[in-house]
Design goal:
This protein has 253 residues and is mainly alpha-helical. The protein contains eleven helices and five strands, in the order H-H-E-E-H-H-H-H-H-E-H-E-E-H-H-H. The strands form two sheets. Strands 3-4-5 form a three-stranded antiparallel sheet. It has a two-stranded antiparallel sheet with strand order 1-2. A hairpin with a 6-residue loop joins strand 4 and strand 5.
């Protein structure tokens, strides 16, 4: 696929790390790099597969030539369905197949290196704690987070001109810092508890109060600033932030 040497994780932690890295690559393809991914999946080409790589990158290419392949292969021919359904549905379909492939690869390593029942259960639980690619791409994971605290969410949304959250966990407050009274500090604690489960729309990782995040004003998904290459200083000058996926959708004819 990427021409690198075969990578064979042998412990539960290594297999899980490999799973997360490949997952991050596929999520990147279906979110922040969606325009490039869309263009590479030309229906006029041969059967193509989407691979998540151990370095958190992705690749659309032909399936492995060796039979049987070194690793389980992802869904074949994802490009053929691209123009036959709405883009959102197509991306969701690719995401579901990506989830199935990641599980196949992880448990292939488990079988190859002799994981017992307890090892397999532990590995599955570690994987199951993460939202699926489908949940990230379709927004289901975000909806699940919203349902946990409707009251706090509605109060946050009333702050119309806010986008970014940094070291202070204030998800949708105005960007300019303002003095806080006791009531505001109490609200901050509620917001931190709520958004502790917020997921980055690019990498799928959780919110942490010591990281800078920014919210897309179109799809309302949150992103690590580092994932979308936005710094706190730059965010101060953005009146309406559009994530890469929403920007590409508007630009596409």
């Amino acid at each position: 696929m990427d021409g690198s040497q075969p990578y064979n994780p042998r412990t539960i932690e290594e297999v899980f790390r490999d799973f997360k890295s490949r997952r991050a690559g596929i999520i990147k393809a279906l979110t922040t790099d969606v325009e490039e991914f869309y263009q590479r999946c030309d229906p006029e080409k041969e059967n193509l597969c989407l691979y998540g790589l151990p370095n958190e990158q992705w690749e659309v290419t032909l399936p492995a030539e060796e039979v049987p392949p070194e690793l389980p292969e992802p869904a074949l021919g994802i490009n053929f369905a691209r123009d036959g359904m709405p883009e959102k549905d197509w991306l969701a379909l690719v995401a579901v197949h990506g989830d199935a492939w990641l599980l196949a690869v992880a448990f292939y390593f488990g079988a190859r290196f002799g994981f017992d029942k307890a090892d397999r259960k532990r590995l599955f639980n570690m994987i199951n704690d993460l939202p699926t690619i489908f949940e990230v791409v379709s927004g289901v994971a975000k909806k699940q987070v919203k349902d946990k605290s409707t009251v706090s969410n509605s109060s946050s949304k009333s702050k119309s001109n806010s986008k970014a959250k940094g070291s202070e966990p204030q998800p949708k407050y105005p960007k300019a810092s303002t003095p806080k009274d006791d009531d505001e500090e109490g609200l901050d604690e509620e917001d931190e508890e709520e958004h502790g489960d917020t997921l980055c729309g690019s990498c799928g990782e959780n919110y942490a109060s010591d990281e800078f995040w920014i919210c897309c004003d179109i799809c309302e998904r949150w992103f690590h600033g580092s994932c979308v290459k936005i710094t706190p200083a730059r965010a101060e000058h953005i009146k309406q932030y559009k994530c890469p996926a929403c920007t590409n959708k508007r630009a596409r004819p």
